[in-house]
Amino acid sequence: MSSTTSTLNVDSKSVELAVKAGTIGPSVVDISKLYGQTGMFTYDPGFTSTAACESKITYIDGDEGILLYRGYPIEQLAEHGDFLETCYLLLYGELPTAAQKADFDYRVTRHTMVHDQMNRFFQGFRRDAHPMAIMVACVGALSAFYHDSTDISDPQQRMIASMRMIAKMPTLAAMAYKYSIGQPFVYPQNDLDYTSNFLRMCFAVPCEEYKVNPVLSRALDRIFILHADHEQNASTSTVRLAGSSGANPFACIAAGIACLWGPAHGGANEAALKMLEEIGTPDRIPHYIAKAKDKNDPFRLMGFGHRVYKNYDPRARIMQKTTHEVLNELGIKDDPLLDVAVELEQIALKDEYFVEKKLYPNIDFYSGITLKAMGFPTSMFTVLFALARTVGWIAQWSEMIEDPSQRIGRPRQLYIGSPKRDYVTVAQRG
Ligand code: CMC
């Protein structure tokens, strides 16, 4: 990492600031000493110009539509790799050898069951509870069940906590689904691969044999790869911030799940499908396009736009292909939602408003249609995102814990409230 300086003139003071360059991507101006030198903070709501950490995990070039995990293009990983291999890559920085892969798969598989007491925990929820609410609670509760892997100063405990979360997320997600539909939980079957196991835990019932469809399993595995990490997005930054206080990893990942739930983030796949259902038929699209463009209307085209991607979202392209593969496999020739989606995309991509603001379909635009076709209800979509993103959160959390310069995250503010004033008793208040 090379280093130069830049000069900032503030209030007739001249301050030298270090400029740090990464391997690729924009350089950063190091302002960590700015307050000490000038008595001023920087102001950047939404962190649109602020890098909060150094990272070796994921790189995005939003203008070029590039996404790399540890340097490998997402297209290549999605085409040739599998999800657990991607997990290994994100966690350890290199693709595994055959022996390392076998060992990693075995270690994850050994942890797929959850403590039997967890089953009781579920009974406390209403059957109509949103599965994301259940996930926030259950993943946070893992710290109560697995207290022997909450000491973050012990690398061995950190590793076991990581394995436990990657392995148990599918089990918990499937349990949340089964609970919502009143079916018995299905235990993991560890001779299946990670994603097939998950499909079985979701869709098998004890009274019938269940055969995993390999095309659907491969498609879902690819969807997991696409969602595995996305550098310093809102939920990942939440995990890092929570972890910076020394909180245990289960609590940190629960915080990430809570953040992901929002409709501007992971909740967008659920919101996008609901929007397509609301539009219903292609002839109603112009009405919704007009709503999205109306400044006085809060409606937005869900699954469109991205803070970083201003050209296209490379994940959306792979997702669109996967959608067609899944619909073909299931023999769904005419899906009215797909018709609306394809038409909406065509119209929006030509519309001046969307072109000018560089609003393109993001990954969530097509993922909902695919997951629905596979049999998942909309309320499970963000849960699947959380399942896949868990490895990214853990990799980023581990990187932070291992960084010797790591300190508690503590943003500053521009105070715009009342200046100091004296307390007035109730009797004296007018
Ligand atoms: N429909 C209509 N207008 C939009 C949309 C949209 N989906 N997205 C952005 N705009 C407009 C927005 O009104 C603003 O216009 P103006 O400059 O006139 O005020 C301009 O485009 C810039 O928008 P912004 O909200 O300042 O951009 P942002 O970077 O803060 O927000 C976003 C990014 C993803 C939150 C936003 O595009 C959005 O709300 N999209 C819909 C929700 C969605 O699909 N989210 C999934 C993101 S990808 C998965 C993930 O990472 O979780």
From TrEMBL:
Keyword check for Repressor, yes or no: no
Alphabetized UniProt keyword annotations: Acyltransferase, Transferase, Tricarboxylic acid cycle
Q: Which reaction equations make up its catalytic activity? A: oxaloacetate + acetyl-CoA + H2O = citrate + CoA + H(+)
The UniProt entry, under InterPro entries, shows:
Citrate_synth-like_lrg_a-sub, Citrate_synth-like_sm_a-sub, Citrate_synthase, Citrate_synthase_AS, Citrate_synthase_bac-typ, Citrate_synthase_sf, Citrate_synthase_typ-I
Pathway it belongs to? Carbohydrate metabolism; tricarboxylic acid cycle; isocitrate from oxaloacetate: step 1/2
Q: Does the keyword Acyltransferase apply?
A: yes
Q: Annotated Gene Ontology MF terms?
A: citrate synthase activity
Q: Which family does it belong to?
A: Belongs to the citrate synthase family.
Task: List the protein's name.
Answer: Citrate synthase
Taxonomic path = Bacteria, Pseudomonadati, Pseudomonadota, Alphaproteobacteria, Hyphomicrobiales
